[in-house]
Amino acid sequence: MNFTISRSELYEALHKVVGVVPQKTTISILTCILMELKEKKLQLTGTDLEISVTHSLDVDSSDEGAVAVPAKLLVEIVRELPDVPVNIISETDDRIILKTEKGEYKIATQPREDFPNITVEESEHNFWIDCQHLADMTNKTIFAVSADELRPALTGINVELVESNLIFVATDGHRLAKVVYKDFQTQAAEQRVKMIVPTKALNLMMRNLEDAKQLNVQIGEDHVVFRLDNAIIYSKLISGTYPNYERVLPASNDILLRVDRELLISTLRRVSIFSSSLTNQVRLVLTPDEITIHSEDIEFGAEATESIPAVFAGEWMQIGYNSVYLIDILRHIDTEEVHFKLKDSGSAAIIHPSEQPEKVEITMLIMPIRISEEESRSD
Amino acid sequence: MDAFFAAIEQHDFPEYRGKPLVVGADPKGGTGRGVVSTCSYEARQYGIHSAMPIREAWRRCPGAIYVFPRGKRYAQVSQQVMALLENFSPDIEQLSIDEAFLDISTSYKIFGSPEKLALDLKKRIYDQIELTASIGIAPNKFVAKIASDLEKPDGLVIVQEGTVKEFLFPLSISRLWGVGKKTLPRLKRLGINTIGDLAKYSRDELYAKFGQAGLHFYRLANGIDARGVEGAIRAKSISKEVTFDTDQSDDDIILNTLRYLCNELAREMRRKNYRGRTITLKIRLEDFSTFTRSRSLDTFVNHFDDLWQNIVELYRQFNRREKVRLVGAGVAHLERGAGQLDLFADTPEVSDKVDEVMDVIREKFGEDAITRASMLDNRHDSQWIRD
Questions:
Q1: Which residue of A has its CA nearest to B309?
Q2: In a domain, A119, yes or no
Q3: Which of A109, A158, A171 has its CA nearest to residue B344?
Q4: Are the beta carbons of B375 and B313 closer than 8 angstroms?
Q5: Residue B135 and residue B118: Cα distance in Å, rounded?
Q6: The pLDDT of residue B103
Q7: Could you read off the pLDDT of B235-272 as tens digits, one per residue?
Q8: End-to-end Cα distance, chain A
Q9: CB atoms < 10 A from the CB of B122, how many?
Q10: What is the rounded average pLDDT for all residues in chain B?
C-alpha cells in the first residue's frame, strides 16, 4: 500500500472514526483503525464490536492493501504534522511508514485478518431522512440521556416512527426531552419503527454528517445502520423496553409560567454558583409577576437570591430543581421566551418553546427536587 | 457515657465489677478475629482500647473477661439515658448510642448555673441508671465534645467563653473533627501536631492546602463552631462491615451478608436523614489485601433496594479469586433531606413506605419484629464477627 494524502484530509477523516475506538479494552486489535486502500479509495474503519464506523475518501493511488494501525499513535502524529502531503507506505503487515518532506514515522501494525470483520447487510426496512432534521432532533434530545448502566434502556435515544410522526425521546428519569417531527413522509411509514439507539452511535453519526443532505437509516433485527455517501455507521441497538414515557407526561398541568429564556439561564447560572455542588439545588418562588431564585450551601454558609420578571398564572408556588438539569433544557430551546406548564411543587413541569417550529413539536420535562421543611421555613 | 457497653455489663453482672472486661469479638484463646468494641477502665490499664484487634487484647490481658456485645440491651439503656436528658433541655441532639449534645443556654437558669445543671444530670444518671457519665460544657459543640472526653470517667470539664483557645491549643490535632486516617499524616508532615500549631495558619493558607476542609479546620482550630444543637455533624460517608469467622468463598453467604449490611446501612441513613450518591463495596481477602469498588449514581438514595442493587453489581464485577475475610458496604457523597424526584419511580415511593413502616415496627417491637423475607435464610450470626 502506497499513497499520498494531505495531512488535513487525513486528520479530518481520522477524527470521524477515532471516536468509536474504545478507551479501555482488553482486546488490543480494537485500539487500531483499519486502513484499507482499494479502487482509489481509502477506507478507515474503527469498531468497539458494538458499533463500527467506516469513512472513505478518494485518494490518487491505484495501489491496494490493508493494515490495522494503532489509533492513538496515528491520530497523535497526524494531528501534530504541519499541513503538508503525507506519503503512507505499508509493504508488510507489521509496519506502516508515514513520510513527509522532513520526517519519517514508523508505526508497528497488525495484519488485516486480525481486525474484526464487519459485514453490513442491506436491509429492506429503511428510510431516508433530511440530515438537518436528524441532527436537530438528536441535538435536542441527546443531553437528557442517562449514564446509569443499571437502566440500560435509558442510555440511548428512543426512536419511533408512528404513522407519519418521527419521534425522538431521551430521559434519565429526572428530565425528559421529546421531539416529534410531524408529516414525516417515507416509504417505511407503513412499517412501525421502535428502537433504542446508543448515544455513542448517534454522536459518531453526527460527526460524519458534514454537508450531506440525506441520510439512509436501515433497521435490522438488533442493529441500525446510518448510511451516508462516504460513511457507514453500524450500531447494535440497546435491547430492553423503553419506559412508557407517554404515561408520565402530565396531562393536567394547567398553570402557565412565561419567562425570558436567556434571562432565566443567566440568572440560574449566577445563583447556582451558591448551591450545593452535590445537588445543584435551586429553589424557585413563583409569584404572578416574578420568579425569585434562591440557593444556598448550608455547609459553607453561602447563599444567593435573585428575582426576574415573569408572568405566572398562579398565585404562589415554590419549587426546587437541579439547576444543571434546568439550564440544560433551556439551552436546547431556541425561542426567546419559554413556557412552563406546572401543577405543584411535587410534580413534573413541562417546558415548551413559546412557539413550535413548523412541523415540529418540542416537549421538555423536568422533575423537581423535594424541598425540605427547613428550607421552606427560611423564607 | 463512660465505657458504656462495658459499664452496662459490669452493672448487670456484679461479678464483673472491678475486673478487666472486654466487650467485643470472641478472642478464641488468642486466635479470634474482629475487634474490641469497648473495654472497662480496668482493662484499659493493660493498654487495651476500642477498635484494637481482639487478638492483641488477648495478648495483653488473657485473664480479662471477654463478652460478646448485647446490642439490644445497650440500645435499651441508651434510650433510658436519652429520655432522662429531656429533663434538662428541650434541645437534644443524639450523636451516637452514648453521646448527646444539649443546648442549655436557657435551661441552666432553672438549675442556677451550668455547673449545677451538669452535676444534677450526672447524679440523676447515677441514681436512676447506675452508670457514670462525663460532661463537657463549652460555648459550642466542638469544644464541648472535646471537653467531655478529657476527664473520663465521671468527668466534668467546663470551658468558659474567652478561654476556648487556651483550652484547645495544647491538644492534639487528632481531636479535630474531620481529621482522620488520611488527613492526620498530611498535617503531621507540615509539623502540625497540636490544635495551636494549626491555629497559627491563616484561613487562606489552610484553604490553599486543604480546600474547603481547610476552612473547616481553620474554624475549629480557632474554636469557631456556629452549628446549633440539632443539625447533626455531617459525615463524609457511612459504612458497615463485618469480618467472617472463617474466610468465605461461598458467594451466597457473602451476598447474604452484604444484603444484611445494605439493610443496616439504609436504616442508619434514614435515621440520620441522609441520602448518598456514591456506593462502595469493600472486600478484604484472606491475605489481607483490601479492595474497594465504587459507583456513583445520578441521584441520592437511601433505600435498601438502591444500595443492594448496586452492591450486587459491584460484587459481580469484582473478580475474586481468593477467599474473603471481610466485606463492607458504604455510601459517600451524602446530602441531607432533599431528594430529586424520578419520573419512573413507582418503586422508590413504595420502598419509601415499606422502609418507613419497617423502621417504625422495629422501634416499637424490637429488632426481630419484622424483616425482609429474603433475609430469613440469613443465619449470619454464626458466621460473623461484628466490627
A1: A150
A2: no
A3: A171
A4: no
A5: 7
A6: 87
A7: 678 888 888 888 888 888 899 999 999 988 988 888 77
A8: 73
A9: 17
A10: 84
Q: Considering chain A, what percentage of its residues have pLDDT values greater than 70?
A: 95
**A109 vs A94: CA distance, rounded Å:** 5
Residue recorded with cell 396531562 = A251
* Nearest-by-CA chain A residue for B345: A173
A149 DSSP assignment: T
Choose, out of B216, B341, B346, B347, the residue to mutate when testing the contact with A (most A CBs < 10 Å).
B341
**CATH topology (fold) of B4-69:** MutS, DNA mismatch repair protein, domain I (3.40.1170)
Using an 8 Å CB-CB cutoff, list chain B residues near A369.
Answer: 338-341
| Among the listed residues A89, A87, A91, A116, the one whose alpha carbon sits nearest the alpha carbon of residue A102 | A87
Question: What is residue B2's DSSP assignment?
Answer: T
pLDDT given for residue A144 in this prediction? 96
- Cα–Cα distance, B348 to B194 (Å, whole number): 47
CB under 8 Å to A245, separation ≥6 — which residues?
A158, A169, A171, A176, A178, B343
pLDDT band at A262 (very low <50, low <70, confident <90, very high): very high
Counted domains in chain A: 3
B290 three-class SS? strand
The CATH class given to the B237-386 domain equals alpha beta
- Looking at A246, A264, A283, which one is the last position of a domain? A246
The mean pLDDT of chain A is 90
CB contact under 8 A, A279 and B335: yes
Q: Per-residue pLDDT tens for B183-212?
A: 888 888 888 888 888 888 888 888 888 887
Into which CATH architecture does domain B134-233 fall?
A: Orthogonal Bundle (1.10)
Question: pLDDT-based confidence at B232, cuts 50/70/90?
Answer: very low
Neighbouring residues of A41: CB distance < 8 A, sequence distance ≥ 6: A56, A57, A58, A59
C-alpha cell at B367: 429488632
Let me know if residue A120 belongs to a domain: no
Closest-CA distance, B334 to chain A, in angstroms, reads 8
* Cell numbers standing for residue A152: 440500560
Both A337 and A285 in a single domain? yes
Higher-pLDDT residue of A4, B267:
A4
